[in-house]
Every structure is written in C-alpha cells, then in structure tokens.
Amino acid sequence: VELKVIWNKNKYDVKFCLDSTGAELKQKIHSLTGLPPAMQKVMFKGLLPEEKTLREIKVTNGAKIMVVGSTINDVLAVNTPKEAAQQEVKAEENKKEPLCRQKQHRKVLDKGKPDDVMPSVKGVQERLPTVPLSGMYNKSGGKVRLTFKLEQDQLWIGTKERTEKLPMGSIKNVVSEPIEGHEDYHMMAFQLGPTEASYYWVYWVPTQYVDAIKDTVLGKWQYF
C-alpha cells in the first residue's frame, strides 16, 4: 500500500507491505527521518501497535500515518540553552589564552609589581618562610598577605580590612601560572568552593614558594 507519513510538517510517500508490523514501519520511518524508533510515536487511529501487522489494524491505501517525536539532536539543542553553550565556548577560549592575558587579571597585573613585593629566586624551590608572605595583590588590586598557620592547619588570607581564616581542608585546589614577562613570579588561585567562580586570586607570588604552598595546602599525598 502507499502511505503518507507526516512528521514535523514534512510529508513522505512510502510504499509498504501490509504484512509488515508496526515495529518494521518504525524502522522504515527511522531511515526516512533519522528519528530513532524509541523516540517515535506513530499514530494511525490511535497509537500504532508495534507487534501487529498493518493488515490487522486495517491500514488501507493512501492512509495517513502521523509521527510525533524529536531526534536526539533536537533534544540536546533544547537542553543546552544558548547561554550555557556560549559559556562553554568562552571557557574554551579562556583555556587557550594564558591566564595573565585575560581581562580580569590584566587589570591587576597592569598596576605593576607591588612596591613591597618579596624578592624571588628563579630555579629554586624553597620551604615556606616562617614569616607571612606579603607584598602581593588580590583580584581587586588590594594588598594581601598569606600566613600559613600549620599548627592550626589554617591558611590566613589577610587584607587591610580583615583576615580570613580558612581550614586547609576546605581549599579544594590550588592553581598557578607564571606571570608573562615576570616568570619569577606567579599568579595563584585558591579554590574555596565547587567551581572556578570561587577562586581567590593572589598576584605576585615569588616562584620559589609556589610548590611549597601547593604541598602545604593540599597535603603531599595529593601529588603521588
């Protein structure tokens, strides 16, 4: 028999054997539309039963078969709002670009080195000094110092306004990258929550202390 299959405002003329089952018709519709059988609702006087033949459900020549359903791509397109897609693209672009060139960091780095920045020693790994690390900026360009209170297992982040006392165990990750043109200093972030939005950025960390800070905050075991 000749059938008219209608799906998504598209019409398909199909020749099909009356002794084929509904399931076989779904396979045929799949080959026409790309719509997987599991995602098809096929209607002919109600929902088309998969196990019965077209003859049994009295399909006649010229019958109209309505198909409802979305392809996987349609479903994904609906489930990925444009904003989320744009954010992913942005995140990808940001990954390619060195951190120190990104706008949010540029505005702090363009202020130049703090006047009381600590001296750096390239190519050497040193243990944390017993005094606080000072002479660094945070993301708003304010002065910041880091104090490692090992006996309390806390990191104190001090600014002019206040001191935040963070348990080391609450810091999820530490990332750092050399500052372009000043490779003996790093910009470093402490991740305080589940996402990158919770990064606390510190700029102009002397390179010789970078590994010691990571080891101290994350615990050596993270590295092996």
Automatic annotation (TrEMBL):
For the Ubiquitin-like domain, which residue ranges apply?
A: 1-68
Matching InterPro entries: UBFD1, UBFD1_C, Ubiquitin-like_dom, Ubiquitin-like_domsf, Ubiquitin_CS
Where on the tree of life does the source sit, at the highest rank? Answer: Eukaryota
Q: Which GO terms describe its molecular function?
A: cadherin binding; RNA binding
- Quote the CDD domains the UniProt record gives: Ubl_UBFD1
PANTHER family (alphabetical): UBIQUITIN DOMAIN-CONTAINING PROTEIN UBFD1
Q: What is this protein called?
A: Ubiquitin family domain containing 1
Q: Which organism is it from?
A: Buteo japonicus
